[in-house]
Amino acid sequence: MNTPVREARLALIARAVAYLDSTPHGEVVHLLVSDPIIRLSNEWRTNPAALADHLRAFDMDANPTALYGAYKRAQNVLLAAGLPHMLDDDLT
What we know:
- This protein is mainly α.
- Helices cover 67% and strands 0% of the residues.
- The protein has helices at residues 3-22, 25-34, 42-46, 48-56, 64-81.
- The relative contact order is 0.23.
């Protein structure tokens, strides 16, 4: 995976972690549980602190497949929150 894409995905993951860390637990759970298009396991939907910890563990050295999965989970968090959740078109 090229470095700009990896960096962009990590930046998106960091935005999701910041959202999870700064938003009240009940509000996050409500958003993640009530939106049927959000593709997260029930474990992640009901435990945003664990999801944030999981996402926080990814860095530039992460396995590309694992990083992609974390990126998709982060996208779902931002999508549920109504926040920008896509990479720039020139990076994808």
